[in-house]
């Protein structure tokens, strides 16, 4: 009998700590206070249908804190603005740079690296050019599981 | 109001999402095993490349011309089209996925004057977010909606959304539409109609109802005729009936573990395969749903449905059971008591010899599976259903090395693109 009692105590303690999906069928006193867990997919990926992933090659954006091997989350539903870090197709490759729209009136826009060793790309009004997506998050892994 | 939303040159457009440089260039996608052309971009169509052209002939037929050639990559097409369906789910009051690249839309609740703008917005959203071109046809019934979507694709002035909402527009559209392009008119009926002097959809619509009944004595043809005349005559269930087969059951008790569920789902999948073979059809999309008992409010509730694209159109038990097990594993969540599951196969088409050539996988392997299925069906017929079953149907799988994986690996795909949305190794490289 004693054994059974101990187990019961154990179980009810755990009930309060977890959520209401209890297979045993006891109503949990904590159920009224339950709140959904934080969830990266839900909270950081705002437009799942428009979200793509990229891996950074090289250090052309190092002054923006983005380094070779980093992963980025690209959202195509986000409107790019001057200063956005964007992904664009340029010279046969996907490239990731700052978008600079400040020279729009003069008839061109610029794709700017965050590293003085790299050139600025200038896109003139007539060029076929399209911002493919906007970089919204950066993922860097420090320790592999 | 009904709508049809379908992707322009679906496979080619999917390939172009990650190759912006191919915009405005001829692109073709080859059948499994790189046999022949199954999809063409508008530019490839304009060049005169025909569907079904064997790959090895492209070079001879179009010497020196630059054509971007891809092996079919259904993993990519499935994922990208899934995103489109997900957007449609958010935007449309109701929808029915009819095939990999088209959905019927049920638009009750959207005001007629907002309809055109709604369609144009759906196109814009899909283009911007997924990068795929979607065309939308809107009309008072499904047959006319199909014609409207063809118009939306054909003429840029529609801005990818064409609505047939007056008799004048309807007649103009029917006049433009050749009889063989009318949804529901098969090749054979089209040939008969042409022999009777019916060239366009309008020619057909203007015949008397009595003439149609007397000539064809076929309820489906009569429904098509009614729809061309503006009625809403094709029942929604017919879409599902013709194009999908579902096998589902409630379990006697409740089931918590994946292995037991797999046994049940494998049986439903095998049953679907059998039904497909009975009506001499093949499937391309397989879905599995799973749910807890909604009447047991005291228990945690969970419901999910997912679908997958089959590599080759098939009615063979082994690949179908394998696909169903995979989808089930994807949607299964630990910690629930399940009450019901089901398997649904969609994208059904006739198992004709033409189809076999077009999707020429490994002919020998297909023949082997076919003979196996025939033998199993025969034995099951004689000795009672399910005398012979696939391993999964009977007990938990121990070894995933089924025939189907060997089967899939045997397919040739020399020009296959990457899978940036389903494999970490393939995500975009950003310089």
SSE order and pairing:
The complex is a heterodimer of chains A (about 140) and B (about 425).
Chain A: H1 2-17, H2 40-44, E1 51-56, E2 71-75, E3 85-90, E4 93-100, E5 108-112, E6 121-124, E7 131-139
Antiparallel strand pairs in A: 1-2, 2-7, 3-4, 3-7, 4-5, 5-6
Chain B: E1 2-7, H1 10-17, E2 27-30, E3 37-40, H2 42-47, H3 55-61, E4 68-71, H4 74-91, E5 94-99, E6 102-106, H5 112-129, E7 134-139, H6 142-154, E8 161-163, H7 167-176, H8 187-195, H9 201-205, H10 209-216, H11 219-228, H12 236-243, E9 244-255, H13 258-278, E10 281-292, E11 303-314, H14 317-331, E12 338-346, E13 349-350, H15 353-358, H16 363-383, H17 391-394, H18 403-409, E14 428-430
Parallel strand pairs in B: 2-4, 7-8
Antiparallel strand pairs in B: 1-6, 1-7, 2-3, 5-6, 9-12, 10-11, 10-12, 10-13
Helix pairs in contact in B: 1-4, 10-11, 13-14
Rounded radius of gyration of chain A (Å): 25 Å
| First-residue to last-residue Cα separation of chain B | 47 Å
Largest interface: A-B, 32 and 25 residues
Shape of chain B: globular
Name of the level-1 CATH class of the largest domain in chain A: Mainly Beta
Q: Helicity of chain B, in percent?
A: 40-55%
* CATH fold category name of the largest domain in chain B: Dna Ligase, domain 1
Flag low-confidence runs of chain B. 354-360, 394-411
Helical/strand content category of chain A: alpha+beta
């Amino acid at each position: 009998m004693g054994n059974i009692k101990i187990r019961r105590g154990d179980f009810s303690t755990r009930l309060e700590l977890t959520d209401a999906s209890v297979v045993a069928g006891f109503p949990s006193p904590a159920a009224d206070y339950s709140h959904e867990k934080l969830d990266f997919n839900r909270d950081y990926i705002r437009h799942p249908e428009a979200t793509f992933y990229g891996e950074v090659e090289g250090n052309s954006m190092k002054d923006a804190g983005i380094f070779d091997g980093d992963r980025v989350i690209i959202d195509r539903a986000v409107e790019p603005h001057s200063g956005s870090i964007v992904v664009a197709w340029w010279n046969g490759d996907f490239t990731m740079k700052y978008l600079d729209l400040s020279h729009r009136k003069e008839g061109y826009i610029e794709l700017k690296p965050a590293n003085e060793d790299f050139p600025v790309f200038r896109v003139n009004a007539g060029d076929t050019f399209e911002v493919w997506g906007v970089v919204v998050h950066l993922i860097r892994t420090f320790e592999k599981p | 109001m009904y709508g049809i939303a379908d992707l322009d040159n679906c496979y080619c457009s999917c390939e172009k999402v990650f190759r912006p440089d191919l915009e405005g260039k001829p692109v073709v996608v080859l059948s499994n095993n790189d046999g022949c052309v199954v999809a063409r971009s508008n530019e490839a169509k304009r060049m005169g490349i025909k569907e079904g052209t064997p790959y090895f002939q492209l070079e001879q037929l179009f010497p020196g011309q630059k054509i971007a050639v891809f092996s079919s990559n259904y993993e990519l097409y499935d994922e990208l089209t899934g995103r489109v369906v997900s957007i449609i789910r958010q935007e449309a009051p109701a929808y029915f996925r009819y095939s990999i690249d088209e959905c019927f839309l049920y638009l009750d609740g959207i005001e007629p004057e907002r309809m055109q703008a709604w369609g144009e917005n759906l196109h814009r959203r899909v283009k911007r977010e997924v990068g795929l071109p979607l065309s939308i046809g809107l009309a008072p019934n499904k047959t006319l909606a199909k014609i409207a979507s063809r118009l939306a694709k054909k003429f840029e002035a529609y801005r990818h959304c064409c609505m047939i909402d007056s008799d004048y527009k309807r007649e103009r559209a029917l006049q433009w539409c050749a009889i063989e392009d009318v949804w529901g008119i098969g090749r054979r009926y089209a040939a008969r109609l042409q022999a009777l002097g019916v060239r366009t959809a309008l020619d057909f619509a203007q015949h008397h109802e009595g003439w149609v009944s007397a000539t064809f004595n076929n309820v489906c043809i009569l429904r098509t005729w009614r729809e061309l005349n503006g009625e809403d005559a094709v029942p929604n269930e017919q879409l599902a009936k013709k194009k999908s087969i579902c096998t589902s059951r409630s379990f006697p008790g409740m089931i918590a573990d994946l292995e037991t569920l797999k046994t049940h789902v494998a049986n439903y999948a095998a049953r679907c395969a059998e039904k497909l073979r009975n009506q001499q059809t093949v499937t391309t999309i397989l879905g599995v749903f799973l749910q807890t008992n909604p009447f047991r409010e005291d228990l945690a509730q969970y419901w999910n449905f997912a679908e997958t694209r089959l590599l080759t159109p098939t009615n063979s038990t082994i690949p179908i059971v394998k696909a169903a097990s995979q989808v089930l594993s994807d949607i299964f969540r630990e910690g629930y008591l399940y009450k019901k599951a089901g398997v649904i196969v969609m994208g059904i088409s006739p198992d004709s010899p033409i189809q076999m050539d077009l999707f020429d996988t490994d002919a020998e392997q297909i023949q082997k599976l076919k003979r196996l299925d025939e033998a199993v069906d025969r034995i099951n017929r004689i000795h009672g259903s399910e005398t012979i079953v696939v391993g999964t149907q009977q007990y938990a799988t121990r070894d995933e090395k089924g025939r189907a994986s060997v089967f899939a690996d045997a397919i040739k795909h020399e020009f296959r693109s990457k899978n940036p949305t389903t494999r970490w190794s393939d995500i975009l490289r950003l310089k």
